[in-house]
Design brief:
Blueprint: H1 2-21, H2 26-50, H3 56-82, H4 86-109, H5 119-122, H6 132-156, H7 166-179, E1 190-191, H8 196-202, E2 206-209, E3 214-217, H9 226-237, H10 243-255, H11 259-274, H12 279-287, H13 291-307, H14 310-326, H15 339-345, E4 348-349, E5 353-354
Parallel strand pairs: 1-3
Antiparallel strand pairs: 2-3, 4-5
Length: about 350
């Protein structure tokens, strides 16, 4: 029996390594996984996770950590009692094989979406690369929209539960329908988590649980930040794993919804452009803001400043950079900024409707 267990562990580890390194055609992933198998998985798991007001990830992580702790302590005691390293070596082998199983489950439930056809290949793009002037023009549009929408957005207010906002969920579904022929994803309930303090310290606005397919958010988000963060995480739930693509889908969702949600989307775009242009261009854009949007932007900056711990922030983003690169996102965390390239180069019909290439 132990021989069979050892053989199974070796098989699982080899399979995980092969799955991580083997080249897979993106069009096969798109056709057989991202637009066929994965939507079925998502439409099963997300409605279940939406039933719980707490993060399912918290329960899974807590249970896993307790189990590992108990197993390690028992192995150490057994090793000391028998005066041999064998129990410790055995538990190390089991932990490695368990990690391999977790990785394979990650790929099956969501992770293969990293290998689907890129958004830049599914859309009609302008031939010219995105220019600094083009991105700056997007910034001017963002400033204009923030100035225009501020009063009505604040007068109407923001729902605490974006997943129950019908205009927003309708906009999300319509955007997905323009990007692929897959069944639309189920929006996720935006939840708090026990890792919320880490979000605060590392300046992370949200994340998607790839095992429970649920959306988690920084507990300190201001009301006008939540719609875009929710739409971004919903895009991940829809199978758009790349950060720039999730932001692209999230932005298009927001600007096609009601005024408060649209305001959140334009606020995201302003922030993103601010991080990419020169200091002189940042000053130019900021000078065009009216008092209302400027106060909101100052409030966001203050939230980030008060919450972050630079050491945790820098370490966390370095780890995430390596995670993205390990999942074949060559740009790592720089992929966030590529949403501007998509928005500047993609061809749109009126109403920010992206034009998809014919099959």
């Amino acid at each position: 029996m132990s021989g069979m267990s050892a053989l199974f562990r070796v098989f699982v580890i080899v399979l995980a390594v092969a799955a991580g390194l083997a080249p897979i055609d993106a069009h096969l992933v798109e056709r057989w996984y991202s637009t066929s198998i994965y939507p079925v998985i998502q439409r099963l798991l997300t409605p279940v996770s939406n039933l719980f007001p707490f993060a399912v990830l918290d329960v899974v992580v807590a249970a896993a950590l307790c189990a590992v702790l108990v197993i390690v302590v028992r192995s150490v005691r057994r090793s000391r009692r028998k005066k041999t390293w064998k129990p410790i070596l055995l538990i190390c082998a089991r932990l490695v094989s368990a990690s391999a199983v977790i990785y394979l489950v990650f790929l099956a439930i969501w992770g293969l979406n990293y290998r689907r056809v890129a958004m830049s290949e599914r859309l009609v793009l302008n031939r010219e690369p995105a220019s600094t002037q083009g991105i700056l023009e997007l910034g001017r549009v963002a400033v204009q929209q923030l100035n225009t929408l501020h009063q009505s957005a604040h007068a109407e207010g923001w729902r605490t539960s974006p997943w129950r906002d019908r205009p927003m969920t309708n906009a999300f579904e319509s955007v997905l329908a323009r990007l692929s022929d897959a069944r639309p994803a189920v929006p996720g309930r935006l939840k708090s988590s026990i890792i919320g303090p880490y979000f605060r310290w590392a300046s992370v606005d949200g994340m998607m649980n790839p095992f429970g397919l649920e959306a988690l958010a920084n507990p300190d988000l201001l009301p006008f930040e939540k719609p875009f963060v929710a739409a971004h995480e919903w895009a991940h739930l829809a199978g758009y794993a790349d950060e720039s693509e999730a932001s692209f889908v999230g932005f298009l969702t927001c600007v096609r919804a009601a005024a408060p949600t649209a305001y959140s989307g334009w606020l995201f775009l302003y922030w993103q452009i601010n991080s990419e242009v020169s200091a002189a261009d940042r000053q130019h854009l900021a000078s065009a803001l009216q008092d209302g949007p400027r106060q909101d932007i100052t409030a966001v900056a203050e939230r980030v400043r008060q919450g972050q711990i630079p050491v945790v922030r820098d370490a966390g983003w370095r780890v995430y950079d390596e995670y993205l690169k390990a999942n074949r996102v060559e740009e790592g965390v720089r992929s966030y900024g590529l949403v501007l390239t998509l928005l500047a180069r993609a061809r749109f019909e009126d109403g920010w409707i992206p034009v998809r290439k014919s099959e």
